[in-house]
Design goal:
This protein is 41% helix and 15% strand. With 276 residues, the protein is α/β, with parallel strands linked by helices. The strands form 2 sheets. The chain has an 8-stranded parallel β-sheet. Strands 1-2 form a two-stranded antiparallel ribbon. The longest helix is centred in the first third of the chain and has 18 residues. Bound molecules: ligand YH5.
Length: 276
């Protein structure tokens, strides 16, 4: 069974499901309209009914090659929506951002967790996160979203990603962030080739040496699409398989699009673990 673990003040004794809510113009009819807001809230309700524990709200696309989003647009897309989610539903909300100003306003609006694909490396991010005193997810990325997939290179992807995360954890602690508020994430698809991604999945258990909760985000990613030569809307079975393999190696938190199917798979997994 998943050993009991904490995300800051929140305790869990089973895999935690983080449901993805992208608020970008391509995901809901258009970013800011009333209609888009209602669609987003309906999606939140559905993911919670399906068993999500955390809703990960993101207003900036960090897909390979995606354009950067202005601070104003990112705030418009996320802050009021987070207030509404926290008023309407009982759930944790994470804010998927690398901008300190968005972290600040999102947490003021009720966000419980900061999820930063840049591991608090942007100027001011460490200080803001420390002052907010909420859990943070530190993800590894090589390069920047726009260019990271051009030619990623590692001598040893596992040890390099682990070393990077150790250094970011040290920087966080030095900035006043409690160890108990830190989550680590290898960053599947962020500056990694197909082989790098599968090496990370094969040896995810190595990340246990960090002694912190591990988040795995593989849902619908191109590591599967490329291997299977299929499009992102055909990656349900692959994504579930990835989640189960990650769970088997000690991952705690699963960032996913397909909540119900992942909950089902990890419920079976947990029952098997408890039956040993
Ligand atoms: C993550 O792994 N990922 S955004 C490309 C896709 C499909 C999905 C080509 N934020 C992570 O989900 N936060 C993102 O198809 C994340 N860990 C954490 N902590 C990218 C994404 C995606 C990209």
């Amino acid at each position: 069974m998943t050993q009991a673990f904490n995300i800051g003040p929140h305790q869990f004794s089973r895999p935690v499901i983080m449901g993805i809510l992208n608020i970008t113009p391509d995901s809901f009819s258009d970013g800011g309209s009333y209609f888009a807001r209602q669609q987003a809230l309906a999606r939140v309700e559905q993911m919670l009914e399906e068993g999500a524990d955390v809703i990960d709200v993101g207003g900036e696309s960090t897909r390979p090659g995606a354009a950067e989003v202005s601070l104003e647009d990112e705030l418009d897309r996320t802050v009021n929506l987070i207030s509404e989610i926290k008023q309407r539903f009982e759930c944790l909300v994470s804010i998927d951002t690398n901008k300190p100003e968005v972290m600040l306003q999102a947490v003021m609006a009720g966000a419980d967790i900061i999820n930063d694909v840049c591991a608090l490396s942007k100027p001011g991010a460490l200080e803001v996160a420390a002052s907010l005193n909420v859990p943070v997810c530190l993800m590894h990325m090589q390069g920047l979203p726009r260019t990271m997939q051009a030619n990623p290179e590692y001598q040893d992807v596992i040890s390099e990603v682990i070393t990077y995360l150790k250094q970011r954890v040290e920087s966080c602690v030095a900035a006043g962030i409690c160890q108990s508020n830190i989550i680590v994430d290898p960053g599947f698809g962020f500056g990694k080739t197909l082989d790098h991604n599968f090496q990370l999945l094969a040896q995810l258990n190595e990340f246990k040496q960090l002694g912190l909760p591990i988040l795995a985000g593989m849902s619908r990613k191109s590591m599967f699409g490329k291997l299977l030569s299929t499009s992102t809307d055909n990656l349900l079975a692959a994504s579930i398989t990835g989640a189960v393999l990650a769970a088997q190696q000690g991952a705690h938190i699963f960032r996913v699009h397909d909540v119900k199917e992942t909950v089902d798979a990890l419920t079976i997994f947990s029952k098997v673990q408890m039956s040993k």
